[in-house]
Amino acid sequence: QSALTQPASVSGSPGQSITISCTGTSSDVGGYNYVSWYQQHPGKAPKLMIYDVSKRPSGVSNRFSGSKSGNTASLTISGLQAEDEADYYCSSYTSSSTVVFGGGTKLTVL
Amino acid sequence: QVQLQESGPGLVKPSQTLSLTCTVSGGSISSGGYYWSWIRQHPGKGLEWIGYIYYSGSTYYNPSLKSRVTISVDTSKNQFSLKLSSVTAADTAVYYCARREDGELHFDYWGQGTLVTVSS
């Protein structure tokens, strides 16, 4: 299984909005509404931010939102804050009953 | 509050078997309802799903690792384990254990991760 495709890096200024894309195939992202997004700060474990494409776990800021169109899912962070600077990973269920992650995107808050 | 904690050797020699254990607290594996997972992260790289196990013993593995991976569960100790055979330097990574709820396809609780280095 091939990793999902994410941009290596994105950046934005405080208060702005950014979007991170996650591209897969019809066998993963496009075939299921089981895309999740994780935030990882340096030296820390990943933290679930979005699941089932657009649902937010309890405690996650509503500045984080998710969507999907075809084989591409997206994570949008609005009102960027310094604490949002981290690596972000998408993940999807696949037609082989496995899980595949994206390569990760480093978010820099300017 | 569920907590997961990885444990095991931080250094493994090439060709040997990497063995890690994840101890679950705040919930019982034998209660069912969850898949218990292993995920790794090569230094400076992205996440890679290794596999998961249901409390009943059903397992699902990453096809790229399947021939070398065994995940098992010990409900009496509330632990699950990872064995990865014939390791090489390419298996050097931080290994995380994580929980996935049955019927859901995301990982909601993660361990802190443990670095395993493969070197002679």
Automatic annotation (TrEMBL), chain A:
SUPFAM superfamilies: Immunoglobulin. InterPro entries: Ig-like_dom, Ig-like_dom_sf, Ig-like_fold, Ig_sub, Ig_V-set, IgV_Light_Chain. GO terms for cellular component: extracellular region; immunoglobulin complex; plasma membrane. It is found in: Cell membrane; Secreted. One of its GO terms (biological process) is adaptive immune response. It holds the Pfam family V-set. Residues 1-100 form the Ig-like domain. The keyword Secreted applies. Keywords: Adaptive immunity, Cell membrane, Disulfide bond, Immunity, Immunoglobulin, Immunoglobulin domain, Membrane, Secreted. Immunoglobulins are composed of two identical heavy chains and two identical light chains; disulfide-linked. This is IG c738_light_IGLV2-14_IGLJ2.
